[in-house]
Amino acid sequence: MKTKNIFRCSQCGYESLKWMGRCPECNSWNSFDEVTLEPKNKNSKNQIQQIERISPVKLSTVDIDDDHRIVTDIGEFNRVLGGGIVKDSVTILTARPGAGKSTLLLEISNDIAKKGYKVLYASGEESETQISNRANRILNEIPKDIWILSDTSMDNVLKSIEDIDPDLIIIDSIQTFSLEEFNSRAGSPIQSIECANALVDAAKNKNRPRAVIMVGHMTKANEMAGLRTLEHLVDTVLYLEGESDEELRTLMATKNRFGRTGELGLFSMEEKGMIPIENPSEFFITKREDGNIVPGSALSVIREGSRLIIVEIESLVSRSFTPYPSRIGECLRKDQLNTLISILEQRGNIGLYDKNVVIKATGGLKLSEQSVNLAIIMSIVSSVYNKGISNDIVFIAEVGLTGELKKVPSMEGRIKELDRMGFRKVYIPKDGIKGNGKFDNIEVVELRTLQEVIGHVFGKSFS
Fold first, then answer.
1. How would DSSP label each residue in 275-310?
2. What pLDDT does 187 receive?
3. For residue 240, what are the β-bridge partners?
4. Is the CB of residue 169 less than 8 Å from the CB of residue 209?
5. CA angle 144, 149, 150 (to 5 degrees)
6. Cβ atoms 208, 160 nearer than 8 A
7. Which residue spans within 330-402 are E strands per DSSP?
8. What angle separates helix 101-114 from helix 128-138, to the nearest 10 degrees?
9. 415-424 — which CB contacts under 8 Å span 24+ positions?
């Protein structure tokens, strides 16, 4: 039987009978690799007939094991996954280099092993010595049920799974592994997908379910490298965000078959590894002594998944000596900042055409919700007037182009959280909550426009 050679794009999988300099599918240059196709076995039809037939079952008769999750002692990780690691699940984790992927996975391995489960940690990027050095640095004691494998052969990983029989398999990273039966190089779409398929088969084994967590590379565009097929194969897709020089790390699920998406886990990168942030509101608010009010600071409440977080927004307004003043927003998109500044200039009668404006959220948290609009604007006003806002006052509202305050979701829950934490006053849109709006301690001030809020807080009148 003759073999056949074709050329396959390593970026998108496009196939051609001849080599091409540029892929017509994804426009990548010099991405074609020669692949040898094995002839089909004449007995393949007979082999298919010999495959054990799986009969369908009624959905109502399927039993769910109450103990189908491995619950770790890392609360933030459990939150993102929806309560813990499902025993027959496949998860992929991606992040920028240096974000802490390997550190987090080693801490998870340690926690799982302490509970009596077996863990296989396979790395195609680090040697056994490197993994051991990290473990000695961040772990107080290394459990005996963690096995490490430094190899790039997925065939060896699958053989090790049979020998060790682990409950959790960690692959760091999927783009560094390859199967011998495929001629393409490691990291190519074919190898990544086929290696992932092999791991899915190992995880979904009815007789011996296993949990798999694999690391995926991230591109310069902050997207997972490789085909989208990889994300469709797995049950959960996790993104770990955070710069290498920052303390804060955020873990978010963009896909989760066993829980809600959008859940956010917060960690602090320290010398001893990734430390869960149990009280995020304290982390994102500057602690100041009573009576010490600083201009340019305002508080708001954001919703990340199922949790409410109180954030502090700081602003700095300074005179510009150039024709084009700077607009810098480390915590939000530049277009959003420019829009809010335009609203403040037109509807709040505060000129900023000759002022530099810098916005930052304490702790480095990114602000994507519209509920922080009013707090951002009020922090700028505070900086312009050089007059501070009390630390027990909070602002929750979207601000429209007309200067009117708009409602935001979960308003009552946000105010209840503020009331529980002892804040004194909150500014919200008129009719922003249902019912009588009575709370135990906090005063709710409902106003219609941005001008009314500025006048109420700073005592300014507008004609």
1. EE-S-HHHHTS----TT---TTEEEEEEEETTEEEE
2. 85
3. 95, 251
4. no
5. 135
6. no
7. 355-361, 393-395, 398-399
8. 70
9. 415/439, 415/442, 415/444, 417/301, 417/308, 417/310, 418/301, 418/310, 418/394, 418/442, 421/281, 421/310, 422/392, 423/299, 423/392, 423/393, 423/394, 424/390, 424/392, 424/393
Give the per-residue pLDDT at 49: 47
CB 109 within 8 A of CB 141: no
> Would the pLDDT of 8 be above 50?
yes
Nearest of 295, 299, 332 to residue 421 by alpha carbon: 299
Q: Which two tokens stand for residue 174?
A: 């999927």
Q: What is the mean pLDDT of residues 101-113?
A: 94
In which residue are the tokens 């550190």 written? 103
Instruction: Please state, as a whole number, how many other Cβ atoms lie within 10 Å of the Cβ of residue 5.
Output: 10
DSSP string, 72-107: -S-HHHHHHHTSSEETT-EEEEEE-TTSSHHHHHHH
This prediction's pTM: 0.77
Gap between the Cα atoms of 247 and 212, Å rounded: 28
Beta-strand pair 273-276/264-270? antiparallel
Give the tokens for residue 28.
């990548």
> Which run of H or E residues covers position 178?
none
Distances in whole angstroms, Cα of residue 103 to Cα of each of 9, 89, 214, 269: 33, 21, 13, 9
Distance CA 332, CA 244 (A): 19
Strand stretches in 209-354, DSSP E: 211-216, 236-241, 248-256, 264-270, 273-276, 297-304, 307-319, 327-329
Residue 313: its pLDDT value, please?
95
* Spatial distance between the Cα atoms of 294 and 383, rounded to a whole number of angstroms: 9
Tokens found for residue 171: 């692959």
Query: Tokens 């692949």 — which residue?
Result: 35
> Tokens at residue 86, please?
């499902």
